[in-house]
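ok new one. same drill as before - structure tokens go in, u give me an amino acid for every spot. 236 of them this time. try not to just spam alanines like last time pls lmao
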């Protein structure tokens, strides 16, 4: 289990801007067994490393230093929420939640697609991903970081992977419609038809406009004064 160091935070409000400028992220810790939430600060680089390795749905050990009095070690928490900068996407605030390890909770878990679909390799199809994450229910210590999905079973255009096909360990339940299609391979001609159809329609429209224009010019030429005079003049 990964560990993350934290300190009791003394900076609040608008002053947290200077905290972020120094490479720290303001955070808060709360949970069922915590009577009063604690304001914390964590190192941005250390947090980014832990997030990449543990994911947002796995338990981590939070070590909270309390100034000169020492620190609490081994507080098992989940990264419950990450507020990000709307422009650059960097974390600007974190919620750590200490769950009850004896109670099941719900969490979103990302899907990681692995391998190569034979319908893409051999038949020239296009891999289509319908679902990128699922909601699971489990005890905190059983929550997976991610669910790996092997796509090698997609051998034809009729094959598909459904939610019920996703591999999960014992004690983990996937919520929602288990018959939802997670991924499949689309036939190449269907994609080409969608691309070619609008072009063909536009060509037909241009051709029709051209034909109408020629018809109009011919009618206009026949009804012109010069054409009428020519029709009345006898041939010599």
């Amino acid at each position: 289990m990964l560990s993350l160091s934290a300190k009791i935070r003394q900076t609040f409000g608008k002053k947290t801007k200077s905290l972020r400028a120094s490479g720290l992220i303001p955070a808060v810790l709360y949970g069922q067994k915590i009577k009063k939430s604690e304001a914390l600060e964590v190192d941005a680089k250390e947090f980014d490393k832990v997030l990449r390795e543990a994911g947002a749905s796995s338990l981590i050990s939070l070590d909270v230093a309390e100034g000169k009095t020492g620190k609490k070690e081994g507080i098992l928490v989940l990264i419950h929420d990450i507020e990000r900068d709307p422009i650059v996407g960097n974390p600007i605030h974190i919620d750590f939640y200490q769950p009850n390890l004896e109670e099941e909770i719900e969490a979103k878990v990302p899907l990681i697609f692995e391998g190569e679909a034979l319908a893409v390799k051999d038949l020239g199809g296009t891999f289509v991903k319908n679902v990128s994450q699922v909601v699971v229910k489990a005890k905190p210590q059983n929550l997976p970081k991610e669910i790996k999905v092997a796509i090698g079973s997609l051998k034809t255009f009729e094959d598909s992977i459904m939610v019920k096909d996703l591999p999960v360990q014992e004690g983990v339940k996937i919520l929602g419609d288990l018959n939802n299609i997670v991924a499949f391979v689309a036939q190449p001609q269907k994609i080409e038809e969608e691309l070619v159809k609008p072009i063909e329609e536009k060509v037909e429209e241009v051709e029709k406009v051209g034909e109408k224009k020629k018809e109009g010019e011919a009618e206009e030429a026949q009804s012109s004064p010069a054409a009428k005079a020519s029709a009345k003049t006898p041939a010599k």
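The chain has five helices and 13 strands. and btw The mean pLDDT is 84.
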